[in-house]
Amino acid sequence: MNDWQALRDHQRMVANRPILTLFDEDRAAGFSARADGLLFDFSKTNICQTGLDLLIRLAEGADLPVKRDAMFNGARINETENRAVLHTTLRNMDAPVLVNEQDVTGPLRQTHGRMQAFAREVRDGTFAGQGGRITDVVNIGIGGSDLGPAMACIALSPYADGPRCHFVSNVDGAHIADVLAGLNPETTLVIVASKTFTTIETMTNAETAKAWMAKAVKEPAAQFAAVSTAADKTAAFGIDASRVFGFEDWVGGRYSMWGPIGLALMLAIGPEDFDQFLAGGAAMDAHFRQTDLRQNLPVLLALVGIWHNQICDYATRAVLPYEQRLSRLPAYLQQLEMESNGKRVSMDGADLAIHSGPVVWGEPGTNGQHAFYQLIHQGTRVIPCEFLVGREGHEPDLAHQHRLLVANCLAQSEALLRGRTLEQATDIMRKKGLEGAELERQARHRVFPGNRPSTTLCYPKLTPFVLGQIIALYEHRVFVEGVILGINSFDQWGVELGKELALALQPILEGASAEGKDGSTRQLVDYLR
Ligand code: F6P
């Protein structure tokens, strides 16, 4: 706790310091780091050399390097589920890793090869539906079995040259109804993606899809594939083993898009580009493992997060990609961060003495600018912003629009940093002809406090490789934060209670007695049933 206290004491001393005053000639270079073409700039935060040293001390004090190596080497660091955490092997299948004294990479390579073969067959028409070549793929999954591939299919749409991919997650029948409405069952492939193959939303939607398919297709199960750790359950559902792609329980749901859960993405962009995505992830792994903590992107991103959330007490974090195709990145990161680090006890079961992870939210720029940035600039609470922006877009004919996009991204972080003083605002309004009390009143509305922290992650272009780098960067950031907080980032017991109560409420909605429920729940049941 001493390291935490030292950081808090330091923060109290510098809390009112204008970030702008930190900028000497070396600040930008000194408070940024690069990795394989990425640039992470955290110079527009109130972290100075003393603060950074204290943050690094926190990471070292938490044994970060040892814990990082333990994860990569297959130790059972997910202690509450007694599991290793080896999603990293999915993107680096060449170096042997032992679990229970068995090298796990052989089976991974085999499954990856089967996925590639299947993807090629679907994409070249060798595998067809009753009505011929597969035109559409429907991925049915939720949480980690949906958000990753759904986000990546949008992110990498310029590389999509396979069947169209659609995603159904919500148990709300409207979701599957709307997706299936536009599709021809005879040329549709359904992927049922569920690590456990028990998730009620996914299994309910899978049955609905099966019934829909059965109305038009003689052998509906032949147009189904499954991705799961539960081979017995996929067989019971009627999906032939040749189209079942398994993975192990040491791949957490929200870390699983690199393996079979990424099948829809592989079908969309092809095995070669999918491998590029894996290569990007593997490059970030190597950077994370080999780079000094002070130049290490995931470590720095995590330390900035800790500084803002646990030390400065800023409860939320906005993720603001200036890249329309990263529109689902904030939702993806919500699960990654909030399911991983939303914990109230430390690894040993003791109450957490510090706050758990932050609320993560966001939307792409420039859209957000015309919606919620008002609060970010002038609201009374500070919201640290994380901007992402690429040097180049995929539309060479629209380079002028890309420049406008980049200019807006840079303008926002500059505006947050600089703000606008009352003096400046008064000057502007005076030039517009106002004077006296009205001038004063109007000027006050136009003041921007500034001194609001942001970071910017720049990348060359949103290619499959770069997306892999970005996703692995955030995964490791969450891991580092978890290590420093002393929590288990790889379980998710907090989702269980709601699931149990939903099961119990189903019969009540069908008419069973609501006795024992609280008055509010009874009233809502009365209204809704
Ligand atoms: O309820 C939470 C959760 O277990 C997530 O962790 C997971 O990503 C999601 O549900 C889906 O689980 P499954 O892949 O087993 O269907």
What does this structure look like?
It contains 20 helices and 15 strands. It is α/β, with parallel strands linked by helices and 529 residues long. The chain folds into three domains: 255 residues, Rossmann fold; 166 residues, Rossmann fold; 34 residues. A hairpin with a 2-residue loop joins strand 1 and strand 2. The model has no long low-confidence stretch (mean pLDDT 97). The site of 6-O-phosphono-beta-D-fructofuranose has 14 residues, from loops. The site of 6-O-phosphono-beta-D-fructofuranose (F6P) has 14 residues, from loops.
Structure summary:
With 529 residues, this protein is α/β, with parallel strands linked by helices. The chain contains 20 helices and 15 strands. It folds into three domains: 3-74 and 276-418 and 452-491, Glucose-6-phosphate isomerase like protein, domain 1 (Rossmann fold); 104-269, Rossmann fold (3-Layer(aba) Sandwich), CATH 3.40.50.10490; 495-528.
How is this fold's topology laid out?
Blueprint: H1 2-14, H2 27-30, E1 32-35, E2 38-41, H3 49-61, H4 64-72, E3 98-99, E4 102-103, H5 105-124, E5 128-129, E6 132-133, E7 136-140, H6 147-155, E8 164-168, H7 173-181, E9 188-193, H8 200-214, E10 224-228, H9 231-237, E11 244-246, H10 263-269, H11 271-290, H12 297-311, E12 316-322, H13 329-341, E13 359-361, H14 373-378, E14 385-392, H15 399-418, H16 422-431, H17 436-445, E15 454-461, H18 464-485, H19 496-509, H20 519-528
Parallel strand pairs: 7-8, 7-9, 9-10, 10-11, 12-13, 12-14, 14-15
Antiparallel strand pairs: 1-2, 2-15, 3-4, 5-6
Helix pairs in contact: 1-3, 3-12, 5-10, 6-10, 6-13, 10-11, 11-18, 12-18, 13-18, 16-17
The protein binds 6-O-phosphono-beta-D-fructofuranose.
6-O-phosphono-beta-D-fructofuranose binds near residues 143, 145, 202 and 495.
